[in-house]
Automatic annotation (TrEMBL):
Biological processes per GO annotation: cysteine biosynthetic process; proteolysis
PROSITE patterns: MPN (PS50249)
Organism superkingdom: Bacteria
Keywords attached to this entry: Amino-acid biosynthesis, Cysteine biosynthesis, Hydrolase, Metal-binding, Metalloprotease, Protease, Zinc
Associated pathway: Amino-acid biosynthesis; L-cysteine biosynthesis
Catalytic activity of the protein: [CysO sulfur-carrier protein]-Gly-NH-CH2-C(O)-S-L-Cys + H2O = [CysO sulfur-carrier protein]-C-terminal Gly-Gly + L-cysteine + H(+)
Name the UniProt record assigns to this protein: CysO-cysteine peptidase
Role, per record: Protease that hydrolyzes the covalent CysO-cysteine adduct synthesized by CysM to release L-cysteine and regenerate CysO.
Coiled coil feature spans: none
InterPro entries: JAB_dom_prok (IPR028090), JAMM/MPN+_dom (IPR000555), MPN (IPR037518), VirAsm_ModProt (IPR051929)
MF GO annotations: metalloexopeptidase activity; zinc ion binding
Length: 146
C-alpha cells in the first residue's frame, strides 16, 4: 500500500516560477513538472512543458517531450515530485479529465488558477494527491529554501 505525505513543502522560488509560467501562457493552460531526487518528496528542478493542446480548457504534454523528460529523470535519478498545470477560467481544483489522466500516484498535483487575475485578483495555488481517482487536497507549506 502506498503511504503518501499529506503536505507539499515547496520553495518560494519554485512557486514563483510555476505562477510566472501560468501567467505567461494565459489564456491557455500552462503545464510542467518539478523534479526531485527519487524517493525524497522534495521538489527541486523546475521543468516547464509545452501544452501541446494549446487550449484554455485542457492541457496535454507533448508525447515526445514527455518521453525525453522521463529519460532525463531516469538518467538523473529523479522523479516527478510535482505535476502542475493552470486553470484559466475555473478554480484550482482537478477536473474529471485531470483526475482521469493522473497516473503518478506519488506526485503532488498542483493547480494554479488564473481565472480571477485579470482584475488583479490573487492566483489560487493548491496541491492535491490523486490516487485511483480519489482526490485529496493537501496543505502547502512555502519555505525560503531547503
Amino acid at each position: 500500500m502506498l503511504i503518501l505525505a499529506t503536505m507539499l513543502t515547496i520553495t518560494q522560488d519554485l512557486v514563483d516560477q510555476i505562477v510566472a509560467h501560468a501567467r505567461k501562457d494565459h489564456p491557455d493552460e500552462a503545464c510542467g513538472v518539478v523534479a526531485g531526487p527519487e524517493g525524497s518528496d522534495r521538489p527541486e528542478r523546475f521543468v516547464p512543458m509545452l501544452n501541446a493542446a494549446m487550449s484554455p480548457t485542457f492541457y496535454e504534454f507533448d508525447s515526445g517531450d514527455l518521453l525525453k523528460l522521463y529519460r532525463e529523470l531516469d538518467d538523473r535519478d529523479e522523479e516527478p515530485v510535482v505535476i502542475y498545470h493552470s486553470h484559466t477560467a475555473t478554480e484550482a481544483y482537478p477536473s474529471r479529465t485531470d483526475i482521469s489522466y493522473a497516473n503518478e500516484p506519488g506526485a503532488h498535483y498542483v493547480l494554479v488558477s488564473t481565472a480571477d487575475t485579470d482584475g488583479g485578483g490573487e492566483f489560487q495555488f493548491r496541491s492535491f494527491r490523486i490516487v485511483e481517482g480519489v482526490v485529496t487536497e493537501e496543505e502547502v507549506t512555502i519555505v525560503a529554501a531547503y
